[in-house]
Amino acid sequence: MTMWWETPSLHLPCWARAFKSTTLMTIQATAPALFSRRHLLTCEGLTAPEITSLLDLADHAAELNRQVNKKRDVLRGRTLINLFFEASTRTQASFELAGKRLGADVMNMNVSTSSVQKGETLIDTAMTLNAMRPDMIVVRHHAAGAVELLSQKVDCSVINAGDGAHEHPTQALLDALTIRRAKGRIAGLTVAICGDILHSRVARSNIHLFNTLGARVRLVAPSTLLPTGIERLGAEVFTDMWKGLEGADIVMMLRLQRERMQGNYVPSTREYYHFFGLDQEKLAQARPDALIMHPGPMNRGVEIASAIADHSRSVIRDQVEMGVAVRMAVLEALARKLPNH
Questions:
Q1: What pLDDT score does 259 carry?
Q2: Is 52 helix (H, G, I), strand (E, B) or coil?
Q3: 323, 94 Cβ separation under 8 angstroms
Q4: What's the CA gap between 297 and 108, in Å, rounded?
Q5: For position 117, what pLDDT does the model report?
Q6: Closest Cα partner for 192 from 230, 255, 249, 231?
Q7: What are phi and psi of 100, to 5 degrees?
Q8: What is the distance, to the nearest Å, from the Cα of residue 298 to the centroid of all Cα atoms in its chain?
Q9: Residue 80, SS3?
Q10: What's the pLDDT at 14?
């Protein structure tokens, strides 16, 4: 039986829609603060209760985002700076939207026209921004470890929006939320992450997070795109995609990150697609109800067939929607640790 809070708001009378929206906001305001960290820099070391508390908060944000009135004021008076040293569409836009929906003042810093391009160091940039007294800074940087270094130099909360090939924690959280909403659970599921594992920060964050939540993680890639010793992170490794997808509940595709490659890692995109591109034949090795995922941007015809990207079991667009909800949850959770004076 569908409960009232699971019924789409469009199908509820006006009084019920108002009651539902108010109730969800009350639940959010009184949700237990199990996430008590100052920064979100990595998925490594996060506990299952911490992850679950963020996913629960994001679940409520996802419902709020489907209402006509999407705005809340939990970050009213707070300042959020988006500092992206690498180009981004989904992540930067979703952090901006998340901050504004929570009532924050949001500034997007254009690094291409900033003092960084004039030779200013990361530390000098951090000190300059710190003097502006922001409450939170979202950082994407091309060097692994750069975000953690910056977090040591500022007084505000810092969120890692991707640092080199190291980690991308909010992407892993939104992947987990998408799966949990579609499957009802994460524990016990088999998640196959396929593609350019070597250069993928998404893969590393997902390995840490899904292992913590009790899923079984598989990595599927040619040997040239597998980091040495990656199995020590707690994942099974396959260089045969047909075998790697056998019985998988989730098939997560990754793009070839040519901007990080120095040298030839695959003979050609055509050959790569033949052996490691997700098509109907390879997808048939997974479970009949397997979900198809991709963090984006997609290279259709390279790592995934166009028909598969648009398949009825694809939740790629759901991932984009859940990205805003997860980033709202992270901002709200971190705001609880900010001083109130």
A1: 56
A2: helix
A3: yes
A4: 21
A5: 62
A6: 249
A7: -70, -35
A8: 15
A9: strand
A10: 53
Q: Specify the long-range contacts of residues 262-271, CB closer than 8 Å, at least 24 apart.
A: 265/196, 265/198, 265/222, 265/224, 265/225, 266/222, 266/224, 266/225, 269/302
Contacts 24+ apart (CB under 8 A), 50-56: 51/173, 51/176, 51/209, 51/212, 51/213, 52/213, 53/333, 54/173, 54/326, 54/329, 54/330, 54/333, 55/173, 55/176, 55/177, 55/180, 55/326, 55/329, 56/31
Instruction: Give yes or no for a contact between 164 and 142, defined as CB atoms under 8 angstroms apart.
Output: yes
**Contact (CB, 8 A) for 209 and 46:** yes
Rounded to whole angstroms, the Cα distance separating 184 from 211 reads: 17
Q: What confidence score (pLDDT) does residue 272 get?
A: 93
* Alpha-carbon distance values, 180 to 96, 150, 175, 283 (Å): 25, 33, 9, 21
The first and second tokens of residue 4, run together, are 């009232």
Chain-centre distance for alpha carbon 181? 15
Decide: 114 and 85 in contact? Cβ < 8 Å: no
- Binned at pLDDT 50, 70 and 90, residue 138 comes out as very high
**DSSP state, 135?**
S
More confident residue, 123 or 39: 39
Amino acid letter for position 35: F
Number of Cβ atoms within 10 Å of the Cβ of 34: 15
Give yes or no for residue 118 having a pLDDT over 50.
Answer: yes
DSSP 149-172: HHHTT-SSEEEEEEETTTB-HHHH
- Where would I find the H helices in the chain? 14-30, 48-64, 90-101, 122-131, 146-151, 169-183, 201-212, 241-244, 269-276, 280-283, 306-309, 316-335
Examine residue 222 and say whether the peptide bond preceding it is cis (omega within 30 degrees of 0).
Answer: no
Residue tagged 């579609």 (tokens): 182
Amino acid in the structure at residue 78: R
Neighbours of 325 (CB within 10 A): 28
- Least Cα distance to 189 among 152, 222, 215 occurs for 215
